[in-house]
Amino acid sequence: MALTLISKAFAQDQAIPKKYARAGENLFPPLAWSGAPDSTKSFALVVEDPDAPSGTFRHCGIANIPAQWTDLPESAETAPDRAPRFYKNDFGNARYDGPQPPRGDRPHHYIFRLAALDVPRLSIPDAAGINAMWAEAKKHVLAEASVTGTYQTQ
Fold first, then answer.
1. Dist. CA 119–CA 112, nearest whole Å
2. End-to-end CA distance of the chain
3. Model pTM score
4. Segment Disordered: which positions (predicted)?
């Protein structure tokens, strides 16, 4: 079985609800996955907008998600008993920051990428940011899955 990733908040290639955008409530959307390889020791996640005017823009980076987890709840950064480790995004915040494409742009695509890793932890300092975290994660990928939503500022 292949690794799969879904969100109850939006379907593949469909619009992300405003409550998950920066202009809305800026909540992290709920995600769930299945089919991780048996040898998975942890997960890493990145959320990126490849349609940003300056090139791919990363909205969220999470590492050291325990191997036994199969989901991240809505607003995962505030989950009291299982808040994962967030890295600084391209806004400069160590949290999720939702879609915020320029007004008038066509809909942007927001790709939520989950990687099953062969290591229990990535030893990347928080200050290193998403790019360094994801580069290190890519060295340890056993499987990867993604779900893509769209968003357009009205």
1. 21
2. 40
3. 0.94
4. 71-105
pLDDT per residue as tens digits for the range 53-108: 999 999 999 999 999 999 998 876 655 566 678 899 999 999 999 999 999 999 99
**Separation between Cα atoms, residue 42 and residue 67, nearest integer Å:** 4
Helix (H, G, I), strand (E, B) or coil at 138: helix
> 114-126 pLDDT, tens per residue?
999 999 999 888 7
The topology (CATH level 3) of 9-55+65-104+118-151 is: Phosphatidylethanolamine-binding Protein (3.90.280)
**What CA–CA distances, in Å, run from 98 to 70, 83, 111?**
22, 18, 11
List the domain boundaries for the chain. 9-55+65-104+118-151
**What is the rounded distance in angstroms from the CA atom of residue 90 to the CA atom of residue 57?**
6
Tokens at 107, concatenated: 């809909």
Measured CA to CA in angstroms, residue 7 lies from 28, 34, 91, 123, 139 at distances of: 11, 12, 23, 28, 26
